[in-house]
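Thread amino acids onto this structure.
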């Protein structure tokens, strides 16, 4: 099997696409449940600190309880949980109450599958290809969690940072010194921006999760990719922010999460960072 995956890029790509669909379904669970799990944990910690009795609650994690319709409580069967296909067969409605199902679920599954397939094709079967797929899954989860809650959980960002450093022990994407400097520089860059903005305006412009996410991307891709990631994420964030204010009547005082744009910049740097950087340097060198 390993020999087949190494010798046949198409086989590895199709396998990655299939696994990406299945993982995308699980990512929907993570996106929905992890913030609720964190909220429960915070409530328990607050109760303990205040000397209050910690309420006994039913288990709630990424495995239990079984997925169900939030409106009618209809338990989702295995046939109703086939990525993308079940959504299409159900015509986007719950089988129990016919209430609409958010199109985000098949979108997450499809995006996970397509990006996994492209990573498999781009990097081929090997450490870099498999690691890139894992990075993509993680960034998808962080993107949608940040959209929903403006949180980037430490339980995801910190392991992602350490995993990047471990992978680059074997030069998966860059050398270990570049990865280490990238992790430190990524954190300090946004930390400096945060404090400069806060001291100037008295407001917080971003959260600590953004520092940790950029540090993780630096650990994966090296410090040389940080300027490109920041530039791309800032440009896209500015365009989207202005569009929301102008067209969607998004209030200027309502915060816009920055994590999704960092994730998008990181993905672009993952696939095309070297080519974009070389093209930019050649453009500068042209008289």
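Threaded sequence (287 positions):
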């Amino acid at each position: 099997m390993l020999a087949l995956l190494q010798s046949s890029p198409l086989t590895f790509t199709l396998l990655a696409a299939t696994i990406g669909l299945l993982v995308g379904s699980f990512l929907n669970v993570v996106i929905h449940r992890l913030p609720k799990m964190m909220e429960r944990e915070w409530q328990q910690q607050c109760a303990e600190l205040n000397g209050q009795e910690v309420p006994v609650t039913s288990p709630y994690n990424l495995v239990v309880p079984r997925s169900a319709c939030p409106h009618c409580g209809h338990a989702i069967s295995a046939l109703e949980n086939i990525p993308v296909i079940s959504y299409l067969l159900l015509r986007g409605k719950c089988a129990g109450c016919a209430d609409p199902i958010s199109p985000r679920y098949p979108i997450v599954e499809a995006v996970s599958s397509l990006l996994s397939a492209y990573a498999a094709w781009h990097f081929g079967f090997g450490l870099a290809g498999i690691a890139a797929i894992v990075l993509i899954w993680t960034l998808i989860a962080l993107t949608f969690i940040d959209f929903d809650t403006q949180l980037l959980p430490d339980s995801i960002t910190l392991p992602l940072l350490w995993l990047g450093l471990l992978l680059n022990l074997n030069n998966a994407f860059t050398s270990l010194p570049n990865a280490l400097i990238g992790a430190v520089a990524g954190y300090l860059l946004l930390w400096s921006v945060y404090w400069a903005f806060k001291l100037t305006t008295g407001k917080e412009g971003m959260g600590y999760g953004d520092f940790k996410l950029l540090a993780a991307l630096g650990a994966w891709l090296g410090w040389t990719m940080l300027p490109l990631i920041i530039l791309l994420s800032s440009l896209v964030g500015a365009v989207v922010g202005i569009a929301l204010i102008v067209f969607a009547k998004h209030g200027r005082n309502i915060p816009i999460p920055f994590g999704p744009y960092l994730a998008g910049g990181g993905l672009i740097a993952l696939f095309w960072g070297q080519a974009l950087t070389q093209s930019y340097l050649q453009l500068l060198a042209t008289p």
